[in-house]
Amino acid sequence: MQKQIIVLIGGPGTGKSTLINELVARGYCCYPEISRQVTLEAQQRGIDQLFLEQPLLFSELLLEGRIKQFEDALEEPDNVVFIDRGIPDVVAYMDYIGDDYPEHFVKACTDFKYSKTFILPPWEEIYECDTERYENFEQALTIQKHLVDTYKKYGYDLIEVPKDTVENRILYILDKI
């Protein structure tokens, strides 16, 4: 079986981390979303929302981390590796806020390609804000559109995961791989 690096994408609060946690519980190799860690480390240094205050620095850190996740996934003994958010997410978020970014952001999107891309749709009933998620639901909808546009721009076929129970969403994803 050929190595599959599978990315779960979607706007904030669509259930990606919940699915990653369930996949881990089932024994799958999974890499967590790294933006929360970058945000928490910045907060420990006194920067409340690094993405809002220094979006390019935040995005550079995310890009480095996501490239490392991709490279690490290639070295995993498991044939299937799931990742919570991918490299093109960085570009999508920069487009969302309207900031420019260096050409190496685009190059990373073309150099590192995921095997499959599952997108989770916005789901207001499960949406929650917290200390790391500052966006309201309307902003989450706009981010979702940027994610779809960005991944399609880089040639990805997006597989939409239906709104359903965690169990049924997991079964849907596993059935598609």
UniProtKB/TrEMBL annotation:
Residue stretches making up the NadR/Ttd14 AAA domain: 6-169
InterPro entries: NadR/Ttd14_AAA_dom (IPR038727), P-loop_NTPase (IPR027417)
Pfam hit, one: AAA_28
Matches recorded under SUPFAM superfamilies: P-loop containing nucleoside triphosphate hydrolases
Protein known as: ATPase
